[in-house]
Amino acid sequence: MSFHMETSYPKEVDKAKKENWPVILPVGTMEYHSAHCPYGCDGLVSVGIAEELAKKRDCMLLPPIWYGVSSYAVGGPEKNTINMDVDVFEAYIYNILKSLFKSGFTKNICILIFHQTEDFLPTALACMKAAKKLIFEYMEETQGIGWWGDNKNADFYQNLSAQDSPWNRIRICNGARIPEGYNADHAGKYECSQLEALFPGSIKLERLDECDDWFAQNAKEMSVEEGREIVDQIVENILKALDNGTFCY
């Protein structure tokens, strides 16, 4: 029964809140992906994965964030990348999450990122910082100052399940970490395979000859079948994290 918040009404959103549906926030960038791959690739993959999740679980899908911390690592401004300052981005994410918490969505929030695979790079780090800042504020507001050090919480960890852990109320799912057996890339074989599997016709391989970007050349080896396998594995991994309440970065 999953639905998109932007086209929903109070009755539907209140149902999701009451039944503790996962709240999915896709995050992307507007970044140069060579001549054959669209600027919104990262966001499109995030949206596509969110839609796949919604086929298997009741979810509330939030509108995607198209502008992210892309940086100019792949190319300068002349390549038309739109970069958001990391501190501005973090504040933006924080305010979205804070609004969700204030409205009653205080757990089971999942941020989907398909940009950058290494640990603690700006996009994921900004989301993680925003999430942890909000969670600590929420715990102080609901449990009181010094809540963790209070003697009544001496058995805090002994009684804490993954589902109940405050640290898992907001999960950061870095789907750009390709499942085992595949490699991560940028506008190459694997990213293009995923995007084409999710949105057929997105990749224009005939345009590869218009550029000599080293990182994009193996896109000629893309495979919709492999893309579907990667997508299915990512979806399965995220569903497991949603079901057992574990952190899924």
Structural account:
The chain is of the alpha/beta class. The chain has a single domain (3-186, 227-244), classed as Rossmann fold, CATH 3.40.50.10310. The protein contains six helices and five strands. Strands 1-3-2-4-5 form a five-stranded parallel β-sheet, sandwiched between helices. Strand 4 (109-113), helix 4 (122-143) and strand 5 (170-174) form a beta-alpha-beta unit. Helix 2 (41-56) crosses helix 5 (189-198), helix 3 runs parallel beside helix 4 (122-143) and helix 5 packs across helix 6 (224-244). 39% of the residues are buried. The model has no long low-confidence stretch (mean pLDDT 92).
Characteristic terms for this protein:
249 residues, alpha/beta, Rossmann fold, 5-stranded parallel sheet, 39% helix
Write the layout of secondary structure elements.
Elements: E1 3-4, H1 10-18, E2 23-27, H2 41-56, E3 60-61, H3 86-103, E4 109-113, H4 122-143, E5 170-174, H5 189-198, H6 224-244
Parallel strand pairs: 1-3, 2-3, 2-4, 4-5
Helix pairs in contact: 2-5, 3-4, 5-6
